[in-house]
Amino acid sequence: MGVGVLFLRRALAARPFQAPVAFATSRRLLRTSPPSRAFAKQLFLGKIEKKEVFPFPEVSQDELNEINQFVGPLEKFFTEEVDSERIDREGKIPNETLEKLKNLGLFGMQVPEEYGGLGLSNTMYARLGEIIGLDGSIAVTLAAHQAIGLKGIILAGNKEQKAKYLPRLASGEHIAAFCLTEPTSGSDAASIKTRATLSEDKKHYILNGSKVIWITNGGIANVFTVFAKTQVVDSDGSVKDKITALIVERDFGGVTNGKPEDKLGIRGSNSKYHSWSVRSREKRTCPRPPSETGWAGLILEPGSPCQAVFSSEGAWQCVSEALQVLGGSGYMRDYPYERLLRDSRILLIFEGTNEILRMYIALTGLQHAGRILTTRINELKRGNVTTVIETVSQRLRDSLSRTVDLGLTGKLGAVHPSVADSANKLEENVYYFGRTVETLLLRFGKTIVEEQMVLKRVANILINLYGMTAVLSRASRSIRVGLRNHDHEVLLANIFCAEAYYQNLFTLSQLDKYSPENLDEQIKKVSQQVLEKQAYICAHPLDRTS
């Protein structure tokens, strides 16, 4: 990452600007299949849904050619024209840079072609993201615009709303922002106070409230997806408060914002405080609230937060170690490493802090397992003899044999023999994870939602399992197609899987209530004492007892 930025700085001094060429809009891309929601949840049951992750996704030659047509001009632009040092220093993306981003079609990467966007597949979007990520401020600006800002219109908007808003959003003529967090609700979306009341003529909503500083693109956006509480008639006829997404245009009037916030990193992205006193002419982003359309489920199935946590923490570690390698030089502003460190820190915070995401990962998977295992768990609680005997017998077989076969290896296996040992480690981890989940549900029942130390460990195991599966799938594919240096990739995959395997074994042991590795009660006692005193309560070593 640092080397790429140093190359960028040299290129800036040596090469003049060449206007980027807009991509053709007459493309017809091959689409990837819809994302599965089954794989991560099934791990909680001790199962691996092989068909969801093996073999590694392939890109057709036609799509690869399309990707390469995008990659060249985009790499040229970011390495020759984007001045990340200036963006960080001035706290703003220059207007000329924004215009070039629009000319490249980057504000419409995920907008369907019929509305003037590029309609990229997930694979192509991810590939371009590798390049766009060279500048944190630009990456965040584009992501806030389309990954969340206009996403609701694509997923849940009606035809009229899509036709009205998406063409201008795709071209960059209009910019979108996503407005959820408030002064009293950050990651806790359910506690928002902004309210939308249906007008007397039933034609629009009257919106009142405020959104806090974390509204990316807030100062430059024309279209806002605003979340507010509205009164909705439930299926039983009762009236309840539910969270609804509304489309708000700046031109509606009544939208006010403060000055751009001075941030630690991604300083060129625009973040502002907003307040609302608006008559929204669009009743909703969708005919029904997002919770009813499945919008939330599309964005937040367990696999997505796993990727977010793993990637953000990996980026933070890599940048920190890159700075460390340079010693004192890495700490100097003459080099880009301190900026990269500042830019990457936000990745562990926004779009839900990693702590919140871990709770979500664990609770979503446990809820899924609970639904499947309800009958069995109830029978165990009631002391059903047959169920108890079956469970004890299974536990005895587990203790006598460490061999687990979930179908990843062998002649009909999904992985290449070069990574078979790592696949066996994954299978063993998954199997005993499923057993542990059942034990936790039996022990805690519904109160498990309060056991945050338990939930954190459950999430950490799942993140490791997800990562192990991904690297095994990729390494197996690299060997089979004969990619250069695939032996190096196999080495990396085996190292990662071995480390994750032993981490999981230790974490699984911590989830055993009677294990010596489980220090939950001691930790709770320490935290309670500190909470009561509201301070660090140990005496200083130089203090004397009077």
What does this structure look like?
The chain folds into three domains: 2-299, Butyryl-CoA Dehydrogenase, subunit A, domain 2; 303-348, no CATH class; 354-531, Butyryl-CoA Dehydrogenase, subunit A, domain 3. The protein is of the alpha+beta class and 546 residues long. The chain has 20 helices and seven strands. It is globular. The termini are far apart. The chain has helices spanning 2-14, 38-43, 50-53, 61-80, 84-90, 95-103, 122-132, 136-149, 151-156, 159-171, 290-293, 295-299, 303-325, 337-345, 354-382, 385-400, 420-444, 452-481, 486-510, 520-533, and strands at residues 176-179, 195-198, 205-216, 223-233, 239-249, 255-257, 271-280. Helix 13 (303-325) packs antiparallel against helix 14, helix 15 (354-382) crosses helix 18 and helix 17 runs parallel beside helix 19 (486-510). A hairpin with a 5-residue loop joins strand 4 and strand 5 (239-249).
